[in-house]
Structure of Thiamine pyrophosphate-requiring protein:
Amino acid sequence: MAETSAGAALAARLGSLGVDYIFANSGTDFPPIIEGLAEAAAKDMPLPRAVTVPHEGAAMAMAHGYTLATGRPQAVMVHTNVGLANAAIGAINARADNVPMLLFSGRTPTTEKGRFGSRTVPVGWGQEMLDQHALVREACKWDYELRFPEQVAELADRAHGIACSVPRGPVYISLPREVLCEQVPVPQGTASMRPARSVAHPQDIAAAAKALAAAKSPVIFAQRGAGSAQAFAALTKLAEDWAIPVCQYWALQVAIPTDHPMATGHDPGPWLAEADVVLVLDSLAPWQPGHHAPRPDATVIQLGQDPLFAQTPIRNFRSDLSLPGDLGENILALADAMAGLDPGSRSERFAEIAERNAASWAERDEARQKDARGPHLTKRWISGEVADLAEREDGTIFGELGARFPDMRLKTPHAWYESPHSGGLGFGLPASMGYKLAMPGRLVISTMGDGSYMFANPVACHQVATALGISVLVIVLDNSEWGAVRASVEQLYPQGFASRTNQMPLTDLSPSPDYARVAEACGAWARKVSDRDGFRAALTEAAGHVGTGRGLALIQARVARD
């Protein structure tokens, strides 16, 4: 039987599992991986494309973004414990988003001499840890160390199967250098471990359908979209046919069009207070418990990959009926169950809800028009402009404390991706780049605050974008502060010293760097703007630049502090 190195066998097995990319930042533990990639290519083994990403946080977010577009997990390889430490935020983000990912890191050689691959440089001692896995164990579904070279194929299969099983999430394997250097048979055959899929019990789906159909004032809360384009259409039709309002509070994805008559404003309070049946769709925190609560006599139904969010130690949202499994498939099953029931006449309720939601949009439009007459650019006004562009071009917007979901009219399931609720900053820019790799023909717009842009290790991101020819439109909303931190202080201490004196220690980011020049130095098209005419002109030119595949374009927009 033909043999190859364990490093080459691993790379080839990832290719046979359908992994398209290995996003990697290499180190001294990588020689068997690098040699293995070259060996596998020379032997015409199926291989993912290996991409050098010179910061692990960016590598993790690129893999995350690619999976948001395709549903398929990608591989990330990093350098021993130091690279893994940089990747930890990305693992936390992936777990919070239930995004499958195959995370690998080298492990400093165990042996000091006597084996091929033993320690050769001082960092081999400096990077030794008692428990390297502890850096990411809580964020990963499963972790293991490759102990014998002949385990390579079966462990890759197991990692892939567990990552893709519902609830999905990242997994981690450490790779000792000596083990990867050894010879193994060339992997044969297909994956030995298929992912576990799950849907809710049909009786529970039927019970949920009957409860919604009989309700006088039902409401649906959705934060992570609908799971698929088909489920998006089914949920939109269900909400319309049964006159059920859908509140997308702190939404990470779009569940129904945001300007649909049944799409509510951002405030969950009024809808929750009157609801007799509450359906929660894969929402980590569908409302704020300190301010909102369902009626004591209401029925609360939680539906999602893990409807009780077992990975979150404290989450005490009531669940009278829990429906586990794939979000999209469960929504389709629920829609089918309700299609067999008679909605009766819902026109009066539909009109009442539609009127309330139209009034909410009128308030938001009036506020945006007021901003348009003011002296400064605002996040609210820019959000509307970006949404208009995305709708015209059937584009996708990534938000990270940049454009704001409540201020945007978005009609498609792929229109919006917000950074995960875990709050690991630096996500938006590299995630949008990974998404663009998977969707090269789509306009992808990445909007972020200035702090988020700095957290993304922008020079590393720009270098990768230039190297791979990634054409993403990036908008940095520059207000020279940690705006989210300021908002949190003002929420907790509205009459406190910081709010009354407008002195916010630890939030100021001035003076602002010239982000446009940073981008230009890396080969990107870039502009700085501070007024509406300048922004509109730059947005048009930037869209044309990325639309013709000429590389990344960045707009640094000076905005008023909220």
